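Appendix B. One record, verbatim.
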Amino acid sequence: MDIGNLSQLGSFVLSAVALICAGLAWWRKADDKLWQSQIEKWGSNHIDHERFWSKANDHDGRISRLETEFAHLPSSTVVGRLETTMVRLEGEMKVLQESLKPIAGISHRLQDFLFEQGSRKHEHG
């Protein structure tokens, strides 16, 4: 997987996480009156109020923990800048690889020359 695909995947994942966070934040901020009206509509025979509010508080805590964890993730702007930087670095690495090819050729020729010199000394020595 090359850097471009990896950065696209990272952008997609972070976008999905941002959408999930937005949905969770909206849900969390829903008015308690809505819940109360639903409870009244269902009637006391159909729901255990203590169990309901206990579950709601549990979910509230879980959502708070998720929001705390997501707060550490980079924003889409930061991810975009990282992607741009990674693409630029990839280009610079390609240029560097190309510029090192002549040096590698010189190194191979020098190594061959030294092996020849060494083998001549053993033949004459």
